[in-house]
Design goal:
With about 260 residues, the chain is mostly helical. The chain has eleven helices and no strands.
């Protein structure tokens, strides 16, 4: 067990280093975008905010696939070409909406998790899950933007990767602190196909988190289960099946944590 803890500590350090780099990048970007120092910069920041607000209204009214730059300019009383000084393309606007949604979700989950006793790992794990569900229920259209039907013709750029991994990385951090040992789980005796192992090892190396494939596999399975359960509720697939959504989801989190050994 002591060996497992030392290994977990190494994983945690690598993961926290990755998180620190990501947060530093995000903070630096935020400082540039959120602290305009000239009158022109302040006007630009204000106009950018108005465009994003109008775009979010479109998400609610017509959905992401029908998002229209022209409709936004009409609503704001802008010349049709003026919007491109702020967002060079519709894809760039969608990307910013996606990044903002992921960051909003990440901030909600991190804020909730930070308020929990550090020693209560299961409660921290479950708190993150409940924070994600709560955010989804409060922001259904933003949730559908990032976890719903893909937008035809749109490919998310690399700029969305770090925001997209904030919550899953938070859950993974809790798992590492719990010294999860995949070999001790009920599925630990099932051999992993070589192709899956190679795929996950490449992902772990690319993200710089240093996790062995079995541990990363458990993390991805858990995250998929959490998002899948929330999506079933959001899209109405539990209608006439599950009436007590909050209690059902809480038990899903309890079972998932138990399977992970948290």
């Amino acid at each position: 067990m002591l060996t497992v803890w030392f290994i977990a500590l190494g994983f945690a350090r690598a993961l926290l280093s990755f998180l620190a780099t990501a947060l530093e990048i995000g903070n630096n970007v935020g400082m540039v975008e959120n602290a305009p120092t000239t009158a022109r910069a302040r006007v630009r920041a204000e106009m950018t905010g108005e465009i994003l607000t109008a775009a979010r209204r479109q998400l609610t009214e017509v959905g992401a696939a029908a998002l229209s730059m022209r409709a936004i300019t009409r609503e704001l009383g802008m010349a049709s070409s003026a919007i491109y000084r702020y967002f060079p393309s519709r894809e760039a606007l969608i990307t910013q909406l996606i990044i903002d949604a992921y960051n909003s979700l990440g901030e909600a989950a991190e804020r909730a998790e930070q308020a929990v006793d550090r020693e209560n790992l299961r409660l921290r794990f479950k708190t993150v899950g409940h924070a994600v569900r709560g955010w989804a229920l409060r922001n259904p259209h933003e949730y559908m933007l990032i976890y719903g039907t893909p937008i035809p013709g749109y490919e998310a750029p690399e700029a969305t990767i770090i925001p997209a991994t904030r919550v899953s990385t938070l859950l993974l951090t809790v798992g590492i602190e719990a010294a999860i040992d995949p070999a001790q789980t009920r599925s630990g005796s099932i051999p992993m196909p070589d192709s899956v192992r190679a795929d996950l090892e490449e992902t772990s190396a690319r993200l710089g988190i240093g996790l062995p494939a079995p541990t990363l596999m458990l993390g991805l399975m858990s995250w998929s289960l959490i998002i899948g359960t929330i999506s079933h509720e959001m899209f109405g697939h539990f209608n006439n099946v599950v009436d007590e959504g909050a209690a059902y989801f809480d038990h899903v989190l309890t079972l998932t944590a138990a399977q992970l050994g948290i």
